[in-house]
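Can't paste images in this forum, so I'm doing it all in text. The chain is below; anyone willing to post the predicted structure tokens underneath?
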Amino acid sequence: MISERQLAILELERTWWQSDEPKEQVIRARFQCSPDEYHAELNEVLELPEALDHDPLVVQRLRRQRDRRRRDRLNGSGSV
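Text version of the structure:
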């Protein structure tokens, strides 16, 4: 079962670009954690079947971005 916090993470990923504040500030204000902790939690959420059921477009987009960044790091191209 997906928690309210996990749903809020997906919502932020769907809408953060609409905020006037930097994403890091929004993360700290809404989730009371560091951006690194947030991204670790986001990666866990992306693996939940319930997250995919809830918002398949966002979850698939974020999985593709994550996989592309990992591939770039392994190939030595791109930045972190």
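Residues 4-75 form one domain. The chain has a mean pLDDT of 94.
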